[in-house]
Amino acid sequence: MASAIKKVILIGAGGNVGQLLLQALIDSSAIEVSVLSRLSSTSTFPESVRVHKIEYSEAALVKAFHGQDAVISAAGGSAILEQKTFIDAAIKAGVKRFFPSEFSVNTLDPGARDLVPIFQQKKEILDYLHAKEEGGLTWTGIAVGLLFDWGLKAGILQFDLTAQSAVVWDSGNTPFATTTVDTMGCALISALQRPSETANKYLHVTSFVPTQHVVLAALEKATAKTWDVKKTTTDVQVKTGRDLLQKGDFNGLFPLLQASSFGHFEGRGTKFAEEESADNQLLDLPAEDLDTVVRAVVKT
Description:
Layout: E1 7-11, H1 16-27, E2 32-38, E3 50-54, H2 58-65, E4 70-73, H3 83-93, E5 97-99, H4 110-115, H5 117-131, E6 138-143, E7 146-147, H6 148-154, E8 159-160, E9 165-169, E10 178-179, H7 181-193, H8 195-198, E11 201-204, H9 212-223, E12 228-232, H10 234-246, H11 253-262, H12 270-276, H13 290-299
């Protein structure tokens, strides 16, 4: 039986997802969290959190990881493949568990990897972790789909709360897995507290499996307004994203990420979404009500 995970260090805590994970770890009385930060970083963190501000050399990483039960990575962008250095250092430091930078759409889905180039790198990290299992380091990946409440506020789900308008893809009836910030945090804490059940596993969690039309109906109900709706297609958005990336504009990642969730592709949709919800019971995650969450988002 795996021993309890109590001390964790978080990489990428200054990023969008990292900030959310950090708050969940701080809020958990069962976890002692510290943060790893580059010497050049300007990110700031709560005074209660110990910060290891270092150059990311293997020697410095081993020293920072020493005594930690788990390393949690929220590294993004160009740092995805740098996780190999983190993994090697974690093994040398005697860390028990490594959480790679997932917390997004299902990296194991070939369709998602074909659409979003960075997911190929994430899969490479998962393969690297598989290869290191014999060295004693265990790992856990957590896929959450697009973040629901955060995504509504940021416009990632194609709903503009201020303008009360929406961009609906195709028929608007493609189911997609999506998770609230709170449930993502609960999933991480639960995985830490269940080291045996979650060792060397890729977990899929979700709060809801709605369609864009279901979300739109909830927003119109919460605002008591009829929203303006524009239409687009998966083909148009995928072409836009790829054209932007080809020009070196990384904003092209956004339509590709959206396409990996609620874009319409043969063989995707409901089955894909059902697979992503499979581990909610394992992690004992609470049930949520979409209308309740939407009302709370609209009020903020």
